[in-house]
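Worked example 3 (structure in, sequence out).
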């Protein structure tokens, strides 16, 4: 696949996943027999691009029909399906009552167990959480303050964005936690079109993820560990803001290389990349304790479904318990590495309490020398940020 086609293909694929359960119900009612292979996938993709309940669509209806029919000419295994695809799409697109007959709210692209968990945990918010996963994720930049030697330079950069027609808005806070370097682009664009991106002016990072550095706030000269650090956004943000010594730990060699590349692009110093398992600190820890640690642990990724819509198809309910065990092992492994008086920030991109609030409560109960400090806790996905959980702990001096 050529690089030029990749964004469009990804956009269509993601849309098909976001609306997948609803599309399946449409097919159940509009097609007597499930079509084979490529025919099913082509119909699935095309129906997912139908105008939504507000009448908004990625393509005009006639264009959608024509292009889907034209696609049957590209593969000999699809040529027989030309009439079927044309007929089904025209019936679906002409039905202005389709959302009354087949409600998207009744067919969200989540398994039943997922919806039950959300409904039980957040009876007043679960619908909004589900709705947030259906929209395209925002493109948020984190401005690199080391790139701009003076505030005037930053203002010049923002003026440059305006001159190029790149509309943006500042994100000043999330859940009462202030942010200082986040700007939300009105329209998503390739990073190649962002001024000075490859020179280190900024990074793409969700506003919710930018809270980590603001919450930890290490002092100059302190040693900081970012565990499970790839691709390195939180580690880079810390190095941009604070004069610290930072170790970025990652178990995967290739992902560790991405951290190095990000540090180099942003022209950051003070950061070292370690390859190792956060659950087995004895294999890489050199004995010198840290003043602050970010435990950005593996999780269900249930707070970033709109960026990875395949998650709801791949996750199993049993995965949550298994991830919970892994998270506890990582916390238990990292805690001895923290100096008395030091701080550990527990982070997940999940909305399940088993990976968030319940873990935080367990940790305080399990560790008598752990004191919980103020932090945002559970953050729901919204128009300006993904879903995250943050808990901050201090190691009590004894």
């Amino acid at each position: 696949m050529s690089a030029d086609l990749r964004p469009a293909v990804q956009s269509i694929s993601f849309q098909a996943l976001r609306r997948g359960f609803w599309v399946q119900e449409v097919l159940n009612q509009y097609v007597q027999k499930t079509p084979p292979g490529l025919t099913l996938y082509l119909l699935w993709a095309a129906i997912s691009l139908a105008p939504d309940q507000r009448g908004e669509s990625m393509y005009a209806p006639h264009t959608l029909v024509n292009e889907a029919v034209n696609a049957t000419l590209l593969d000999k295994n699809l040529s027989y399906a030309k009439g079927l695809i044309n007929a089904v799409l025209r019936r679906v697109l002409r039905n202005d009552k389709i959302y009354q007959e087949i409600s998207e709210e009744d067919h969200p692209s989540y398994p039943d167990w997922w919806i039950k968990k959300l409904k039980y945990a957040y009876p007043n918010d679960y619908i909004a959480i589900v709705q947030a996963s259906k929209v395209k994720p925002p493109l948020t930049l984190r401005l690199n303050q080391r790139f701009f030697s003076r505030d005037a330079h930053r203002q010049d950069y923002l003026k440059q964005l305006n001159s190029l027609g790149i509309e943006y808005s500042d994100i000043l806070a999330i859940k009462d936690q202030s942010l200082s370097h986040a700007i939300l682009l009105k329209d998503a664009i390739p990073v190649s079109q962002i001024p000075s991106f490859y020179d280190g002016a900024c990074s793409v990072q969700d506003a919710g993820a930018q809270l980590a550095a603001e919450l930890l706030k290490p002092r100059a000269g302190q040693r900081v560990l970012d565990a499970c650090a790839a691709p390195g956004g939180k580690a880079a943000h810390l190095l941009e803001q604070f004069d610290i010594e930072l170790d970025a730990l990652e178990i995967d060699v290739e992902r560790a290389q991405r951290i190095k590349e990000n540090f180099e692009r942003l022209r950051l110093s003070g950061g070292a990349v370690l390859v190792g398992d956060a659950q087995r600190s004895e294999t890489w820890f050199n004995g010198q304790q840290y003043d602050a640690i970010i435990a950005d642990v593996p999780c269900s990724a249930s707070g970033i479904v709109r960026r990875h819509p395949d998650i709801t198809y791949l996750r199993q309910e049993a995965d949550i318990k298994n991830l919970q065990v892994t998270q506890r092992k990582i916390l238990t492994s990292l805690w001895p590495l923290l100096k008395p008086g030091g701080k550990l920030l527990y982070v997940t991109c999940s909305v399940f309490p088993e990976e968030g609030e319940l873990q935080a409560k367990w940790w305080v109960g399990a560790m008598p020398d752990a004191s919980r400090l103020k932090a945002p806790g559970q953050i729901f996905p919204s128009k300006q940020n993904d879903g995250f959980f943050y808990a901050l702990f201090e190691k009590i001096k004894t």
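Notes: The longest strand covers residues 338-348. Residues 317-334 form the longest helix (18 residues).
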